[in-house]
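User: Here's a structure from my thesis project, written as structure tokens. My advisor, Dr. K., wants to see whether a designed sequence matches the one we expressed. Can you design one independently, without my sequence as a hint?
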């Protein structure tokens, strides 16, 4: 195959295959302690650059890159070259190339990895960088995206080891070979950017299995909350890994996966700065399961530059640019709610061990009918501090009762109202101070990830939130270990 066809082939490969690998598999080099060797010598001394050295030799660039420079080289590892078609996979196959056209094209490709000047990672910023490649029929500009310490090139390659020192410049090891023309005006589309980042390998497999690749490669624009590989490992089988997801054949599982993925997609291009401070509701691309059912909204909580989703998921890398939108990497997979608050309470009563049996009995009292109705209303938007059975037993003992039936209706309803807030508040939305419930104010205390709540009748005894942020389609439940008293 002629190397002249390589850019077209690489675009096709980006569209249909995952082209990234985990850090552990990439064998990226460790920077040497000294910089007495030039760029070529540093590469020659490192077994992870054998394919690159063979390519430099074949393209007759060794003398150039051994010169005074200085140069900055984005250096593909052997694993990066292994993703190319034959004969460009290995040092041996590259060394055997004799076609002058292939050699000339190889030289252009290599020069596309070289910048003039000595640029450490700290010197690189988001935006275009002109390489030593001649412009020709394809671009000679690479596009960098820098988010924190992460540097992505053309939306498809990531710097895995930065600042490998040489006497005539700096090497940055990368995980994909850069192909001029595969991204001529900036980063690739959302799918291509994800394919170029090894931390999104499982997400790419899920997008492929759910047949969403074409959609997310389209014009959009889209905002995607992108779970990392580690986020997927917290799910049950078969959704843990790229391999297990690729093996799914059950139509119902594929449909579930598709809905989960659409729950991570917003219409429009929303950078982190576009999210308002405090809580906000973000409508996703997931269709609602039924009219009036609110199971297609993600709830964002922004404090400073930190963004939390649905109370438990954090944006760990924001503003990863794509040609058709923005990716925000997140540390947990967002799961759409499937139950109302009332259904969460009822389901817990038959769990092992059972929970909320006393709370359910209290809500089922005739006097509390309106509260139970609100918890069962799909259009509600509530926060419920739900006391455990042990918490209710402790309350009965304090009151000198042996049964919930002994608690007068008025007292019981007033107690229950103190546990219900008329809006949705995740733990990330709560701050130190009063919160107004249906029964009056309670005092919230926040220390790190710990949350307490206290009614006026509790004195100095706080209730601890022992399980936070149980998402319902009509609100959120926080499990507490003490009953709040007016």
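Assistant: Designed independently from the structure alone:
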């Amino acid at each position: 195959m002629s190397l002249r066809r390589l850019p077209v082939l690489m675009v096709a490969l980006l569209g249909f295959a995952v082209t990234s690998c985990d850090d552990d598999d990439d064998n990226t080099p460790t920077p040497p302690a000294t910089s007495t060797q030039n760029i070529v010598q540093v590469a020659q001394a490192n077994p992870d650059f054998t394919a690159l050295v063979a390519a430099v030799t074949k393209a007759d660039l060794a003398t150039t890159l051994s010169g005074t420079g200085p140069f900055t080289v984005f250096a593909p590892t052997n694993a990066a070259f292994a993703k190319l078609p034959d004969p460009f996979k290995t040092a041996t196959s590259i060394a055997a190339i004799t076609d002058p056209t292939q050699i000339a094209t190889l030289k252009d490709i290599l020069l596309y990895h070289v910048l003039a000047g000595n640029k450490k990672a700290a010197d690189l910023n988001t935006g275009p960088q002109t390489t030593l490649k001649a412009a020709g029929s394809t671009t000679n500009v690479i596009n960098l995206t820098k988010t924190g310490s992460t540097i992505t090139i053309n939306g498809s390659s990531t710097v895995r080891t930065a600042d490998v020192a040489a006497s005539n410049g700096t090497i940055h090891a990368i995980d994909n070979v850069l192909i001029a023309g595969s991204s001529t005006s900036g980063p690739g589309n959302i799918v291509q950017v994800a394919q170029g980042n090894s931390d999104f390998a499982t997400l790419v497999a899920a997008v492929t299995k759910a047949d969403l690749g074409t959609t997310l490669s389209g014009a959009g624009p889209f905002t995607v909350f992108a779970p990392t590989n580690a986020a997927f490992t917290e799910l049950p089988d078969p959704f843990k890994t790229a391999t297990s997801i690729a093996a799914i054949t059950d139509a119902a599982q594929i449909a579930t996966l598709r809905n989960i993925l659409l729950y991570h997609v917003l219409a429009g291009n929303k950078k982190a700065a576009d999210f308002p401070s405090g809580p906000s509701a973000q409508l996703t691309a997931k269709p609602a399961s039924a009219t009036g059912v609110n199971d297609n909204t993600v709830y964002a909580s922004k404090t400073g530059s930190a963004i939390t989703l649905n109370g438990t998921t954090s944006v760990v890398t924001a503003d990863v640019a794509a040609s058709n939108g923005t990716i925000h990497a997140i540390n947990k997979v967002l799961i759409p709610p499937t139950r109302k608050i009332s259904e969460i309470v009822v389901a817990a009563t038959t769990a092992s061990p059972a929970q909320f049996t006393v709370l359910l009995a209290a809500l089922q009292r005739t006097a509390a009918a309106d509260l139970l109705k609100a918890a069962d209303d799909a259009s509600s938007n509530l926060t419920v501090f739900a006391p455990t059975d042990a918490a209710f037993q402790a309350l009965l003992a304090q009151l000198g009762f042996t049964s919930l039936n002994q608690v007068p209706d008025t007292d019981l309803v007033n107690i229950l109202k103190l546990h219900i807030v008329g809006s949705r508040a995740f733990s990330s939305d709560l701050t130190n101070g009063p919160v107004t419930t249906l029964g009056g104010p309670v005092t919230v205390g926040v220390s790190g990830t710990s949350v307490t709540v206290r009614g006026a009748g509790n004195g100095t005894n706080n209730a601890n939130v022992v399980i936070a942020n149980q998402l319902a389609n009509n609100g959120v439940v926080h499990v507490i270990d003490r009953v709040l008293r007016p």
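When you compare it with your expressed construct, this may help: The radius of gyration is 28 Å.
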